[in-house]
Amino acid sequence: MPSNISNNSSIRPTACALALGLMVLAPLGLAGQTPPSALMQPTASSFQGSVAKGEVSAQPIDLTLDDSIQRGLKTNLGVILSSAQTAAARGERLSQLQALLPSVDGSIKETVMQVDLPAEGLRIPGFPTVIGPFGFTDLRASLTWSLIDVASLRHYLAARHNFAAAQLSAEDAREMVMLVAGNAYLLALADETQVASVEAQVATAKVSLDQAVANHQAGTAPLLDELRARVDYQSLEQQLIVAKNALEKDKLALARTIGIPLAQSFDLADKAPYAAFDEIDVDKAIREAHANRKDLAAMVEEAKAAEEQRKAATADRLPTLAFNGDYGDIGVNLKTSHGTGDATGTLSVPLFREYGLRGEAQVAQAQLDTAHAQLSDKNAQVDADVRDALLDIAAAQKQVEVAGSSVALATEALSEAQQRYANGVSDNLAVSQAQQSVAQANDQYVTSLYRHNVAKLSLARALGAGENYKNYLGGK
Predict the structure, then answer these.
(1) Residue 141 falls within a domain, yes or no?
(2) What is the pTM assigned to this prediction?
(3) In angstroms, rounded to a whole number, what is the distance separating the alpha carbons of residues 390 and 387?
(4) What angle do CA 118, 124, 130 make, to 5 degrees?
(5) pLDDT tens by residue, 155-184
(6) Positive or negative, the Cα torsion across 35, 39, 44, 48?
(7) Domain count of the chain?
């Protein structure tokens, strides 16, 4: 009989591979071309963590798939970091906007002075060597405004596109959370189904063991039958221990993803759904994905930002016109003060900064080329995501149907073998082999059902329709 490790391996490596595959999609839609803060940028591992919220209750709570996703949307670390990145991009846009607007400052100055003329190099016969103390009050407002600065304008436009990209990335992060939280919940469901299946197999093996012991004691069966049945029973008990451990660990992973305190126990209220998926038009689905995918739209904005940065590098060669002025009252005190002011217009032209300007232009061009290449690859990736998800759904759907039939056939074969052994027609070797077939068939069914449901969630993500994940799990 297969060991527990071999049985569970049909689920565990597949689940891990799928989870890792889903995680890889995260950075594609979430990494900005020039992120305001690298510390705020969510990574693949960010979506496996959360900020735990809520008090721990002594009673287990019932958790549905929808509850898991809604909790994840509020507490998942990837969503929180993405929101922080959006706030940073908003701040960067405002900073760049200020460079285009007038800057007005006010000041009030109270000055007391005493001057030593010899120290200043003035020696006038008959004139006091020390003047003062004396003072004055200066109340003044100053204005600074870059009237013409094309480079600053381009930097501001780039910041606007980066902010738009950050907003789209934040929306894409929500869809990623739906996929990750849904995957974690379905994996725990698969583990729970696996535990129930192994428990049923243990119960069946116990019946076979009791029957073999009774037959051996009655002298109608050899000791080999009892030993074989006992080995089968103990092997299944080991499988049950490992299956329960896997369930508890994946429930912890689910809690980490959606922000449930790890000390809080919970039960999975939903059962693994299955609904045959309707045929869809592949070309139409791809067009829908290109229209709805937020990560693709974010990358378009990032490419536009790179274009503006490249134009800003060129605009650094252009003259700039700035105005500086101030007006205020100055005097011994405010009662005897008098208004004074000045205004200055400055036209600046770069005369010799050739190497610096060329370097900036080359860096900006490299960033622009990179953005265009990534955007082209992203368009192809969107097509591949849709096609991959549809292929996975079709393959998993066939696997579910075949595995369901195999479970029924294996169960019938086990019943037949048990009846033949009970009637003394054969030994229990056929019973042992039939139990192995039932275990393998159940493992295949659980694995294929999990793959089918995760493939549906992946399709919802690939189409940019994560909000409608229920429809896809329902087969629509």
Answers:
(1) no
(2) 0.82
(3) 5
(4) 45
(5) 999 999 999 999 999 999 999 999 999 999
(6) negative
(7) 1
